[in-house]
Amino acid sequence: KIYNIMRKARMSLRKVLSVYLPTELDDAIGFVWRDSRNDVFKLSDQLCLFNKYWDSVFSHYFTEQTLCNLKYLGTKFDSVGGFSFVNDECMTILAIIEDFFSIVQKRKPNMSVPVETIRDSRSISMQLLLGARMTTISENNFMESCSDINLKVFEYNWIIINHLCGVVMDFYGVKHDFLYDKPPVIPSEAEFDRLMCNLYPSVQQLKQTMRKAVEIKENITPPGPKFYKKFHYMLKNFVPSLQIDVQPLDTTQFNARGLEDFCKKSENRERISIGYKQLEHFSSKLQEALSSMVYSKKTNLS
């Protein structure tokens, strides 16, 4: 069932790009791009066009993260019209497509973009994976539980960061593509200043630490237990250190040894790399917000 879902997701992506790319390129640079040999109805060629005209056209509407994500999708094509994936990597692929569709829908509100369909596909896939995971847990409960809690900790922190970044960007008037539930009550400027003083350095520190877990190369000694104790401490205490009112995550099963095993598994490498790239994007946008905050205060003082 998941493979069928992935085939339909790839087909949906191709259909959206076959309409969106010509529209955007025609509006931006006229018809000169049509002289290229790329087939606008072939997904691999569509991604080539997106990459080819990134600097001149698409970089104005999408972030570098989107470009990286689409390049990643280009490495995941299989021979039967879907995507190749390992375990719950399909969730990452569907999330990338959903995020891309959401941006396109905002950019072209009159265009038919199946955001809800992809969102439903993610939900169904998650249920199918959970069903398969329960079978595995019955065979190896401890190892699977450890893997699950590590994933939950990463997702919990990244969801909180994404939400806070969206709130901060909107408050300081910084253009962004974060999708989040807007709070019913906007905090005061003093509260935002306090949040930025905690959030920005915490994200920077987490990014610098996580880089070591991502940049594991041959002939270089990989990070050991001491590093993962530090990484574990940062992930566990990241949200509490922000001093915000949010539902806490139960981390009683989260430990440094389990985190080390999780990060070193080959099937998790791509997921961790994408998470790090997202963290880089969070950091970059927070830097913009910080600059806007400082500029605003200088203007008010003058």
UniProtKB/TrEMBL annotation:
Domain of life, per UniProt, equals Eukaryota
Q: What protein name does the entry list?
A: Transcriptional protein SWT1
Q: Which organism is it from?
A: Parasteatoda tepidariorum
Where is the organism placed in the taxonomic lineage, from the top? Eukaryota, Metazoa, Ecdysozoa, Arthropoda, Chelicerata
